[in-house]
Amino acid sequence: MIQPELTTFRKLDKKAISCWRWGQSIGLLILIIFLTVGLYIVTFKRSFLDSEISGGILLSMLILSFFWIRFYPNLRHKRWRYTITADFIELHYGVWFRENSIIPIKRIQHVIIKEGPIHRSFGLADISIYTAATTHTIPALLLNDAKLVRDELALFAKLTLSDHEHDA
Fold it and tell me: Which of 42, 77, 112 is the last residue of a domain?
């Protein structure tokens, strides 16, 4: 049985907040450009909307984008934590819908470290943990921490495998 008082949860590095803000800013900027072009075409070329309505839609999108970029990464960072033991990995995350996942070490098939261009600029990486059923990701770890987690999981998986070999 898991004893919560003995389980130490790890938090993500604060750099994750800036990394997520940059990623969301780029994605929302692309969306706003497409929205602006679409609204321009619909308003001025096709005359389906009044310019006031198009302006209101665009202004609403900009305001929502600002709040999304400003507050969501902080909430996401606050909620994310994980722990790794010799028997399992436990993940806690989610802003509106909170999730708690427990992944048995013996079910892990492989682990991959992923770095995108924004992550690299902050020295961060995601670690993806693959089982037969699904993939779990611990986002925005410092690159060295991601490598340590990968090595820790490999060690625990090897110990679990050798335990099963002795049982046979």
Answer: 77
